[in-house]
């Protein structure tokens, strides 16, 4: 009971310290923008303005291949380019999931968000908005075969409706269709795939994007939603208190609207990019090219780049996780109560919280104190998470060695360090090698979570291919095969090494 009481006390202390560390960081994030009435000048002095967006929303923002390279294009990108040009600074585009964009603003990861976002009273409590620059309304996307059954939202009362999470359409559809099965997803390509595979019956989406997907994807059509509520229109979002930057962008919006640049230049330009990869347009023309054919081989560079990032993250995270795991294992086996408590609290806390939450905390939470790049944040999060599991594997391996081994070694004059180094640890490693191999293989698969903060790993690249080709299944098949090749190859290597260890031990 005493040990349990000490453990609980230590864990509460650890949690309290963690909370105290986190709270100032978040409060700092909230306070920092408030004092930034000279935000515009800071952007100029820095020489760049960072735009946050979710590039799965044509024609606002989406990815395409230009001269063999993946680029984020669209109406919002053109607006941001004009803002950056008139400011005399460089535009940096930082992609991430839609529901992470406002958090990125609050934590200083981006200077502005243009992502077809609507201004709402709830959002205005956290960030500032520019004036409206576009109002496209919104539609429903349905399967072509369901046109006679679904005329507007009234026909969806008992059906499954898909909406991108974090959007105004999600809240509105929940209000209008309380009996419908609402299915929120982070990415629009996932919604399109769910619709085509009969997982959902309709998608609520902004009209320009709905038309873009319908025009470029076989088997689906877009119809009017039938909802008469007025929507605020699309605005750019900024950190709270960055009045100077908001005012500058409002002047830019006035100029854009005066010259009618969106209809005359930005939307037509986005349409040309979409037509280049349109499945329907290529069928009509009868022409096939490496790009318009949408073949996965045409996107081999994307998958190769994704594999490279995945292996890089996994390799460094394995080294970090193993090194820290060994330390934590010995700390937990230590008779020193402080070291034991610290290791126990760390292991239990990390194993008791989702990796996604840990990743977001490191990138956004700690990022308010130290600006940690997305790739480094991903490596740290995956490595620290793996360390907790590796520590338990190593601890169990060491504990599995009979105490007689230690006693015999000590009786022969070996010190504690020598006993552990030459007798106990080598035998423990032989016993736990299969479990460690499983952990390393799992780590490669778990590293896919880093795509949510914009790290260009294999999952991220497959999303790009999905958005660029308007094909949902083929990129996933390629991704699964590549993951299997990597993990199966690693498993075989671990098996060979395990056999070598057993052979050497005989």
Automatic annotation (TrEMBL):
SMART domains (alphabetical): PBPb (SM00062)
Recorded coiled-coil stretches: none
Domain of life, per lineage: Bacteria
Signal sequence, renumbered to the chain: 1-29
Any one Gene Ontology molecular-function term assigned to this protein's record: transmembrane transporter activity
GO cellular component: ATP-binding cassette (ABC) transporter complex
Signal among keywords: yes
Chain ranges of the ABC transmembrane type-1 domain: 307-494
Pfam families referenced in this protein's UniProt entry, alphabetically: BPD_transp_1 (PF00528), SBP_bac_3 (PF00497)
Membrane topology: Multi-pass membrane protein
Keywords in alphabetical order: Amino-acid transport, Cell membrane, Membrane, Signal, Transmembrane, Transmembrane helix, Transport
Subcellular location(s) per record: Cell membrane
One GO biological process term: amino acid transport
Stretches that traverse the bilayer: 302-331, 473-494
InterPro entries to which the protein is assigned, alphabetical: AA_ABC_transptr_permease_3TM (IPR010065), ArtM/GltK/GlnP/TcyL/YhdX-like (IPR043429), MetI-like (IPR000515), MetI-like_sf (IPR035906), Solute-binding_3/MltF_N (IPR001638)
Gene3D superfamilies: MetI-like, Periplasmic binding protein-like II
Similarity section: Belongs to the binding-protein-dependent transport system permease family. HisMQ subfamily.
Protein name: ABC transporter substrate-binding protein/permease
Organism of this sequence: Bombilactobacillus apium
